[in-house]
Amino acid sequence: MPSLSLRPPAAQGQGGGSGLVLLSLIFSWSIQWSGYNFLEIFFSGDDWKVKPQKYLPPFVMWIVFETIAVSLWIVYSEIFYFINFSYIGTAIATGLILFEKKKKWARNMVQFSVGLYMLIYLGFLCGENMQIEGFWYYLFLGAFKAAVIHFAIAKIFGPLLFGRGWCGYACWTAMVLDLLPFKVPVAPRKHWGRIRYFVFGGAFLFVGLLFVLRIPNKEEVMWKSFIIGNILYYIVGISLAYKCKDNRAFCKYICPVTVFLKPMSYFSIFHIKVDKKKCISCGKCERGCPMNVEVPSNCRKKRNATDCILCMKCVEECPRNALKL
Fold first, then answer.
1. In a 10 Å sphere around its CB, with 0-12 CB exposed, 13-18 middle and 19+ buried, how is residue 273 labelled?
2. pTM of the prediction?
3. Contact 225/129 with Cβ under 8 angstroms?
């Protein structure tokens, strides 16, 4: 009989009943909120009738996540997967819709809806390490669940569809960093990108040694590493932001997840496209980009192309509506 647990299968049996209530409330809120916005789009105003294609990206994104949700529910007979990915997909689609409705806080809403869910519910309440250490841990166990599924969808294969959308809409580290005052980098980009490979390798080595040295209570170690890791990420991220006067300095130079994200994002289907007939080369899009991307170019090899987080800041800045997702 299919499981009706709302907890991640890897975390079942560890307690945390309050988490069930939290997830239920979050999911209920997301369905009601997104439902309201879909109804507003379809039944109020002429926006949908005039340019229905502008709402295609959120619809496609929602369909993709619903397909994943249903597929994993069927394969694993765990309703948790259905609720988990339905919630995330609904939150992202809602945010994209709100952006089209000119709500400047749309992306922040998605960041907190998804980021806090993963950090507080999956992390603290369910005891799952959703950082890169958790990915290596379950991979070494030979278990395709928890962080492995998360990384496969959001950070390894998913970027082939939505690029670095994870960084712009779901990362709980960037969720906080984006609230800092340095939203537009003022100094030239630094050549510190290699640091990410040392952090990436360090995470792999750390988890590998747990198995090689046969450290007992690995799950407890992983839980503590999740807490310590997040604290360090926030400390380093905030410190770098103030040092470099750049909210996204951590993402550009330190974050180990970009080792997966950058090469896959190169082939992303969803990306910002410029209409050369409308573009007047004013440079506002590039100056407003938090990731220093060469925005007014459709070439995949443009400067910092794989750093685009689909934040839509360039779309907002363009005076001629020459940019679109």
1. exposed
2. 0.85
3. yes
